[in-house]
Structures are given as structure tokens and as C-alpha cells.
Amino acid sequence: MSTKFHSELSQDISLLLNDTDDYNVIIQIGEGKNTREFRAHSIILKIRSPYFKSALSTKWVNQKNNMIEFKKPNIRPTVFEIILKYIYTGEVNLTKRSGADILGLLIASDELLLEKLFRHVQNHLIKIQTNWIKQNYIYVLHTVFNLSSCKKLQDHCIESICLDPQPFITSEDFPSLDKDILYELFKRDDLQIEETVAWDYLMKWSIEQTPGLGSKNNDRTKWNDNNYKALKETLSKFIPLIRFAEIPSDDFFDKVRPYKAVLPHHIYEELVLFYYKDTLPKSITLPPRVGRVKVESKLINPKQANIIACWIERKNEKTASLDKKYKFDLLYHSKQNGFNINTFRNKLFNNQGPCLVLFKNQQSTKIYGGYNPIGFMNSGGQWRSTTESFIFSFESIEDIQNMKISRINNNYHSYAIYDHPNYGFSFGNTFYMNSDKRIYCSNNGYYDGNLNNVLNPYLNSNFIPEDIEAFKITTT
């Protein structure tokens, strides 16, 4: 039986970090006034970093008096200090480091092929440095956008902006945003923004980005044909991303029509037909954004919230435009409020109006839910009538293709909702939460024939939910 002393070995090797006798590499880090020399051992660098293994093995490496001299001007000294400690000790402490240093560490660890450190730093930025990222979206995106290895951080930034774009688009740095990043944002269906606002800020960005315009020439009454031609070129790839059919007619007249010259002629003519004759444009067929639905949920994404809103309006969830704006206000979350039926009832049973309940299955990725348009009541046991309630399921938080819905049968709308003190909620005793904290599923015939698909595989069975959310739904 062998005995391992890894901790002692690690401690002894870490002593080499401050050894001033046996080093054979001098690394000059940074540039200008922010420059610092680090001493290291080539054997340690080569073993720990594939980058250094290659860089220090080449015959082209600069040597002077048997000392290897190496320069890395693109890494800040404060960042390389963290890297060198990691290389020698396997330890990294980011607690008191600035967001800029941590982002620099991410880029440097990627370049130096320190994969484990890279993954750790990327996860740290996403989980711990959330607020700093929000305050520095443009700096972060410009730093990582073209690095495929940083896709996880890119996606985090883009998705966070989509949920709350207002601070981002109104920031001072927005006009300097790279066009490819803006394109990535505007092409998304889950950008939570009104289309008129999207058009306004696209124009502000485009004017600033167009040569000959910008802050020195932003009065369009003074523009010549060449100015409009240049602006049209800047806007060309973005025009197909604008959902013009979502822009109200008065906003079209005041904000889009004045820029008629920058729109392709056939698109402008289609828009005129749309606003005068209600003929949908043929060239611009993108679905509406889900910006008309505001929700913060751990169980559904904004696209799924938009689907639920379409179901509420009895519209095609893939192509329809919503008539109203929806806000899903979280009333109850089991991971915050505790899984308690009395707490659940206290949060929901106070004339809250239309409500949505969501449940994550403990044994799968599946999400179940129900919409109650008349709200829940405290009663001793009472059937309540509505023709608009429905039960639904998504295969996962990402699913927008295989969702299922079952509506109350017209002949049984008097049995749509059942209020009882022993239940957290009950959709016609078909889908309900009992006092034993289980979700029960059965088919009493009150909901339509698609119920079996919605509740599969728990029809005539029950399950313990992993997570529960309940929302009050308001519209404007």
C-alpha cells in the first residue's frame, strides 16, 4: 500500500516561487509604465502550461547568459501575478480582485492554455461578478465576443441584456458598441424591448457609427444625399431585424417615415400597405419579440412566457402578435418561501386576480403549469366557473417546440377551478396540489382531450415537485 504526500509536495514546490537562486526565466509583463519582471523556472512553466512548453522550447527564444528572456506585453502584471501563483501552487484567490483583473485573467489563462483555471474564472465571473458585468457589459463583450472559448460568458451577457436591455441601450457607451454584437442582440426574439424603442436606439447608434454624421452632424434637416446613402449602408444589415409590424402607426409616421430614404424601396412600400390596408409585409416576416411579456423565473424562459401569453389570448403561439403587455409578478417561490401549503395559500389566496402556477418535476426536466384567469379564493370547498383556464407542460426550460396545452371543456366550465382548504390549488380536481405536498394528476373529463399528453407520464399518478413558482398576471 502506497502512501501519498501530495500536500507536502505542493508546499515544497511552491517555495520555488520565491526562490531567487535557481530561476532561469525572466518574464517581462505589461508595457509602458505598467511593466514588471517576474522570475520563474522553465521546467515548472513547461509542465504546467502547454503554451510555455511550446514557447520556451523553440530555438527562437531569446537567451542571455543562459537566462531565458520572455516578454508578454498584452498581460497586466496584477494578472500575471495570479497566474504565476496558480502555476506554482495550484491555488487562486479572486475574493479581493477587481472585475477588470478577473476578466484579464480569463483572457490570459485562455491564451496560456490553462484550461482548469480558465473554466474556474469564467464561472466566477458569471456567478460572483454579476453586478460588475452588468455595469460593464460593453467592455466585457468587446473583450470576449470574438473568442469562441468564452461563449458561456458571451451567452450570459447577451441573455442578461435581453431580460433588461434598458440600462444597456441608454448607457453612454452604447453608440460605440461593435456592430456584430448589436446584430447578435437585435436578431434575438427574446430581447425585452418595444420595437419603437429598438428602432430609436438603432438610429442613434447608426448615426454615431456613420462617417460624416454623429455628434457633429446629427441634424437630419442639414443632411445631403451622400449622408443618407452612408446611413443606409450602416443600417443595411439591421433593417431585416426590425419587427416593423409591431411599431404603432403614429410612431411609424413620426419616427420611421422621416428616414424613408434609408429603407429599401420595396420594404417601405410594403410598410405603407401594412399601415393603410393592414396587409402584412412579405419581406419582413420575423415573429414579434417577447418584449411584451416581462417575467423573472427560474422555471420558464421569456419565449415560454410569451407562449403562455399567446395561449391566454387564444392566439397562435408561433406567429401571433400580442394585443397586451404582460407582467408576471412572482408571488411565491418554494426555494425562497419554503415548501409549505399554508404559505402558498397566503401568498395567492388574497384576490390576486389571474394567476399562473409552475412546477418542476423532481425526476425529469419537465415543467408543468396551470393558468387560472379568475384567481384563487379561500373557501370551504367551492367549484368556480371559467371558460379560459388551461393546464400545460413544457419538456424543459428550453422547450418551445413540444409544449402541450389542455383547455377546460366548454361543457364543463363550471368545474374549471376547485377551491378547498386542503389544496394549494386545484384545476377541476384534475391537476392539484394536496396538503401532502404532492402534485396529483387525473382525467375527470373536465379538461379537453389533450390532457393525457400534457400530464404524461403522471396521469392518474402523482409526483413531488422539485421547485414551485406562482405569479400574479397583470396586463396593460
TrEMBL record:
<dbReference type="InterPro" id="IPR000210">
    <property type="entry name" value="BTB/POZ_dom"/>
</dbReference>
<feature type="domain" description="TLDc">
    <location>
        <begin position="298"/>
        <end position="474"/>
    </location>
</feature>
<protein>
    <submittedName>
        <fullName>BTB-domain-containing protein</fullName>
    </submittedName>
</protein>
<dbReference type="InterPro" id="IPR006571">
    <property type="entry name" value="TLDc_dom"/>
</dbReference>
<dbReference type="Pfam" id="PF07707">
    <property type="entry name" value="BACK"/>
</dbReference>
<dbReference type="Pfam" id="PF07534">
    <property type="entry name" value="TLD"/>
</dbReference>
<feature type="domain" description="BTB">
    <location>
        <begin position="23"/>
        <end position="96"/>
    </location>
</feature>
<dbReference type="Pfam" id="PF00651">
    <property type="entry name" value="BTB"/>
</dbReference>
<dbReference type="InterPro" id="IPR051481">
    <property type="entry name" value="BTB-POZ/Galectin-3-binding"/>
</dbReference>
<dbReference type="InterPro" id="IPR011333">
    <property type="entry name" value="SKP1/BTB/POZ_sf"/>
</dbReference>
<dbReference type="InterPro" id="IPR011705">
    <property type="entry name" value="BACK"/>
</dbReference>
